[in-house]
Specification:
InterPro entries: ADC_synthase, Anth_synth_I-like, Anth_synth_I_N, Chorismate_C. This is Para-aminobenzoate synthase. The protein is globular. It is built from 9 helices and 24 strands. The chain has one domain: Anthranilate synthase. The protein is an alpha+beta fold. Strand 5 and strand 6 form a beta hairpin. The protein starts with 7 loop residues before the first strand and ends with a helix.
Length: 444
Amino acid sequence: MSRVSLPLTEIPWRPPEQALSAMKAAPWAAFLDSGGPDTDERARWSFVCLSPVETLDWQGESLRRNGVSVEGDVWVHLRDMAAAVPRYSKAEGIIPFTGGVIGMVSYEAGMALENVPSRHVSSAPKLVAASFTDVLAFDRHEERCWWISQTGNPVPDLTQPVVRSTAPFLRFAPEQSRDVWTDAVRSIVDFIRAGDIFQANLTMRWVAECADDFDELAAYRTLGQTSPAPFGAYLKTPDFSLLSASVERFISLSRDGLIETRPIKGTIALGHTLEDTIRNSRTLAADEKELAENLMITDLMRNDIGRVSQIGSVRVPQLSKVEQFPHVLHLVSAVQGQLRPELDAIDLLQATLPPGSVTGAPKKRAMEIIDLLEASARGAYCGSLFRIGNDGAMDSSVIIRSLARSGDTVSVGAGGGITVLSDPIREYEEMLLKVAPILKAFEA
């Protein structure tokens, strides 16, 4: 495809949150929101994407492209949408995303890629995606802002004052009791001792009813204030919305084909003081169970990336490093590889979904056991939010620390990795540690 001139206009700086009102009346829109410490490079760029030129919606057995039922494979349609976006020269600026495809692929869609059936029915779509050519790009570090519109649309009005609505009240109820969930942990430990698996990620959901006038923008602002995260996102579609404060990168792909994933496994509380944080960091770094958990997932991701990487290119530049996030400390590893030249971002997604950090090892058997023990479909939770740019590069996150709205319900998921060393009560308390900030933010 021929390359065209990038329609780039710098406009006066506004915080990206001030542009969210432009999403309110839009049936399809996306906000890719990088939050966290100003010194973190992952917190530099944010994007508001409006007026998609194409949409894709896979719900149940129905596949719709641009609102019309279509036949064929969803991944073929997704690749076709990505290929239709005009290409720009990489020399035309430092902005990492100037338009392309943004989408959500559910955990169940990942199960289907691994030929694992589910006994659960999800109200969330298996995949939604939209192709955007109108983008507001925000550089938080330099406090600069650009409007990119291939269609020639005028710059949205960003001068209107932000209306700070209060967080909508949600009464969340857990779908399983503590006793039921800890019994499931014991069942997984039995499967491990029997030699079925090495590890499985066990989760559950909290569900609340919401009114038709549920204020998603206020809910997203509340989520961002409570849990600022490098992979925050608000994806809005006519029938489904995702409000995410994810801390975990799933897969990134540079325009030159470098693959990186950063699996997170291993958790401990941050603590109330600097001394608490230092002590807890040392405890986590020496925890045999948490280290084993991280190592197994890192090895699983090495295998997944190896499916599409050039021979000998897969490496692990970081293993089980303690990193600080809002409320918790995590062990984080990094795995890299070089994508084979005949493949693209869609091939990479198909080879690696669902994320290994939320399944277990071996992956397929772990998913079968998870489906047997969990009470509901995961839906968007534990799936992935992705963007594929017009330069062919991709970034994506694991959908955790998130709210998913389908119809009149909102759900939140949390969980953790179970190994043979797991203590069921400790695992339950760790799960509550992850979900507590979100529940408290909306139940106050």
